[in-house]
Here is the input.
Amino acid sequence: MSEVEFVASLGMGMLVQNAKALQRNHVRMVLADPPQLVEDALRQAGIDSVLPIGHGAAEVEALLAA
Amino acid sequence: MRFVVPCSFAGVQHLGDSVCSFVKTIPARAAYAVQLITEEIATNIVKYAHDDPDGRDFTVEIEPCEEGVLVRFVDEGKPFDPTKAPEPDLLAPLEDRRPGGLGLPLVQRFAASIRYHREGTRNRLEVRIRLYGA
Here is the structure.
């Protein structure tokens, strides 16, 4: 997500719906490398409680494997 | 700065583009908050203020205030006080999440203060955003 400059509730809802669809197929979704302001908005909306946020390939891969 | 916005999603999109240009001169965190709050409240007006939004419009004014930036929304839709909207469970597990419901909590978290008045046939919402700090 490193090039995402802005996300509001509509985009967050789409992320959650995608994650739900993937979960039904036992696939885990991780939000990788959001810029700080985007990450803050995601956390304020509680998105991080259902979609892990990671930075860097190693952390993201670890979250995917968790 | 005052915008008269057609009550449509295209109107919200155009408003967002205008606001994006307008906030380029203020700190990034405040600019993000102004953009987010404007989009969320404008979207709510389009979706819920009128049973038939065709031909309707609403106004958005953005101006300096003591805290930083004041965004004022005025519409002639159904009475709605966003400060009294129920808070969704932001910690609900993924399988229990439903589409929607995140907009107003985001507004509440990014705003320094929110004031709502019903003035005659109008909803008037004033959202203040700090220029610096959280």
Observations:
- The helical segments of chain B are 9-22, 28-49, 103-110.
- Chain B has three helices and five strands.
- Residues 28-49 of chain B form the longest helix (22 residues).
- The interface with chain A takes residues 28-29, 32, 35-36, 39-40, 43, 90-95, 97, 99-103, 105-106, 109-110 of chain B (CB under 8 Å).
